[in-house]
Amino acid sequence: MKILVLNSGSSSIKYQFIEMDNEEVICQGLIERIGASSGIINHYTEKNGKYSEVTYISDHSEGIERLLGLLLHKEFGVIKDLNEISAVGHRIVHGGEYFSQSVLITKEVIDKIIECTDLAPLHNPHNLKGIIACKELLPAVKQVAVFDTAFHQTLEEHVYLYALPISLYKKYSIRRYGFHGTSHYYVSQVGIKDNNLDINNCKIITCHLGNGSSITAIKNGKSVDTSMGFTPLEGLIMGTRCGDIDPAVILHITEKEELTLKEANFLMNKHSGLLGISGLTNDVRELVKEMEAGNARATLAIKMFCYRLKKYICAYIGVLGGVDLIVFTGGIGENSDIVRKITLENLEWFGIILDEELNKEMKLGKKGLISAKDSRVKIEVIPTNEELVIARDTLRIIKQGSDN
Length: 404
Description:
Helices cover 39% and strands 20% of the residues. The protein is of the alpha/beta class and 404 residues long. It folds into two domains: 2-147, Nucleotidyltransferase, domain 5; 197-386, ATPase, nucleotide binding domain (Nucleotidyltransferase, domain 5), CATH 3.30.420. Strands 5-4-3-2-1-6-8-7 form an eight-stranded mixed sheet, with helices on both faces. Strands 11-10-9-12-14-13 form a six-stranded mixed sheet, with helices on both faces. Helix 11 crosses helix 13 (337-344). The longest helix is centred in the C-terminal third of the chain and has 25 residues, at 296-320.
């Protein structure tokens, strides 16, 4: 059974085509610059290598039409007939309070996703474009929605509510939702298996660190707290997002700089974080090079990033009442030994001891423990695989439907 996994952005479509019998990625790719004068298609197959093209792609429907054409391509294709596509799984960023798990896409589900647009105006409308295009091009194929927020629907009320008038929650659903749920779920499950933990009696902290970063406290397999909130802006310092900040700071800056609300939002999301602190870049690899060369602002950016992460780790140890395993994932979490080292310094009191040699070796997609032999807490680097989570959930949902 073959599942097509789609992640539709504002001007892009990221995809994987997975054979579920052995969970092998048959092909994958990225269609970019949709609607621009020169779109870009990069398609990769394990068997025949890479296909690239620069061409005009008018909209998401044409993008997915081109994708389906590549699946059937004489040289770079992987199927002979579109009927070989068993189902399509879609990444949907925000499911609000409606969805605590993945669901078969129906008209009612689409309506609810549209209702959540106010909560994720930069994501949900574009995620929907992929769904609508597939309904047009693959009308007989079942589609499944997999939500970034679903894993965090186990947060308790005292955790997800903000200390605002409760009427605002009731009127506008203002609360903590959390994101990166498929990633936190995947790496926690792999970590449980790798370290022979009892899913009904384990305490895990997962650190998804990339241009967008979040950390989650997981108890007995369920999310109990997470750093991102109503939007992905809250929590850790990120590539271009400020993370936690005194809200009065923005009121002050908005007044002093005479910014509109839209401009203030852009400032916090696109010009802050590592980029804003360093004045150089949001790329941790470049910042580490600059830090090692003695650049003071690059050093400050890395120190601030790691300090905020350390504070959350320590806070979540308190929330969980201890910790059995800390997982690092995402582009930074998987590849930056420097970030992991600085973050975990001086946590020996908690039984968290890093093996510095193992830590240095762990990068470029490698997976394994980086904790010292005498560390009470296991520390593991696990490359995330959100597409596989989406594919597995899609398969589970369509099988449930066929069984009923």
